[in-house]
Each structure stands twice: as C-alpha cells, then as structure tokens.
C-alpha cells in the first residue's frame, strides 16, 4: 500500500531537514494521489535538478530527471507546464549545500544521492 501524497511529502521534508537542508512545498496538489516533482537546489554551485516519479514495466517506482538542464528557470518552467496539465501535482523544493534530493527510491543517473 502506498502512502498518501501529503504524508509522503511530509516525510521527505522531514528527512531533508534532519539532513541539514531546507525543504518546503512550493506547490500543493491533491493530498491523496497527486504526482510529485522534487527540485533539489545547490546554492553554492548555483545549480538545480528536477526529479519526477516514474514506474518501470515491472511496477518498480523510480525517479528520473524530466529536464536535463541544471538552470533553475528551466526547471521552474517545466513545473509550471506540468501544473497546467495536471492541477493535482505537488512541487517540493529542497535547498541543500550539497544539492542532495533525499529521495529513498532509486534515482536514474543519480549524481548525488
């Protein structure tokens, strides 16, 4: 059984805060079943990465980068387009001095874990 989105987002934010990062909900979606985008920002390097949840053919959940850019305005533009298509989507922003995302599921091409 999967957690409702609001509980999952709360756990991600808590995990990030325990790791010394700042995390916030930039856009709140459907509390029960909204999709989630996670933006991990590294202010020291002035870069960001966006992660979107996906499901493999075998049903395994993983995270991928829907935009290969590390330029924050590009990622914000993608999130805005996604919200117009899916008004139930959540956007979580994590600012970490190491640029970590704090996701526990597999992340495709993960440079920072």
From TrEMBL:
**What is the originating organism of this protein?**
Caulobacter rhizosphaerae
Pfam families in alphabetical order: DUF1491 (PF07372)
Q: Which InterPro entries match?
A: DUF1491
What name appears for this protein in its UniProt entry? DUF1491 family protein
Tell me the lineage of the source organism: Bacteria, Pseudomonadati, Pseudomonadota, Alphaproteobacteria, Caulobacterales
């Amino acid at each position: 059984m999967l957690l409702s989105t609001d509980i999952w987002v709360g756990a991600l934010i808590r995990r990030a805060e325990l790791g010394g990062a700042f995390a916030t909900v930039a856009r709140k979606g459907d509390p029960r079943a909204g999709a989630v985008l996670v933006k991990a920002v590294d202010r020291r390097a002035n870069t960001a990465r966006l992660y979107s949840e996906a499901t493999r053919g075998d049903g395994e959940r993983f995270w991928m980068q829907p935009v290969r850019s590390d330029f924050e305005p590009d990622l914000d533009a993608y999130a805005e387009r996604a919200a117009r298509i899916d008004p139930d989507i959540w956007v979580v922003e994590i600012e970490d001095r190491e640029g970590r995302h704090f996701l526990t599921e597999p992340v495709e091409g993960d440079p920072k874990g």
